[in-house]
């Protein structure tokens, strides 16, 4: 059963259960939320380390009260809808579709863990490439010079490299795509095996390997913003939760996620240390 929000019954104690998936970014934003709610009088239980489908099921059956979910993931994976490029439209569609599941969507953050292309900073500077349009122009002017590391899914999805080529009007040609497992693309960049790679917008390796994220200046890649997905019963019983999670959502951005994950994965800080420092830096706790 989900946790009981006892504040509504007249007690000063409020309890809530927050879910999280099984990777560093999720651990961090869950911990940020837990610490902030505790500072504001809540007893918080964290249930973390779940896969996407398991966590969604836990929300639906009341094992967790809310968690940070990605808009594109929910549309495609849970609701069998097409991904949407515009973040606000994506959130509105989720509100519409998930209403029948008694799930509320609110407080979309500026963390957008969508597909991106990246290059080593020095290489991008050398070639004068800052945006996807710059990349398209360079490919047209210098056939055969750009090589891109990616997994097989991105190589074949319509919202992957094929769609990007069509949207931006370039053709990589044969031999440019180097397929490999996710995670290996950064080492391939570092080793000079390729000069470009498919990445995710909040990968901590962006900082670790000094990668320039190419701006999607013609808005091709769908929105995968982290937003609050909450059981309707919980939302209705405790309006303070929306305000408090909104305080966090208003300040969260990609650079924060990259930096915190880097601190945890490379500098060996604990998730709680990184999360607490973020809250202090953003004037949410003393």
Automatic annotation (TrEMBL):
Q: Which Gene Ontology terms of cellular component type are present?
A: ATP-binding cassette (ABC) transporter complex
Which intervals hold domain ABC-type glycine betaine transport system substrate-binding? 14-280
Q: Which GO terms describe its molecular function?
A: transmembrane transporter activity
Gene3D superfamilies, A to Z: Osmoprotection protein (prox), domain 2 (3.40.190.120), Periplasmic binding protein-like II (3.40.190.10)
Write down what this protein is called.
Glycine/betaine ABC transporter substrate-binding protein
Supply the source organism for this entry: Lentibacillus cibarius
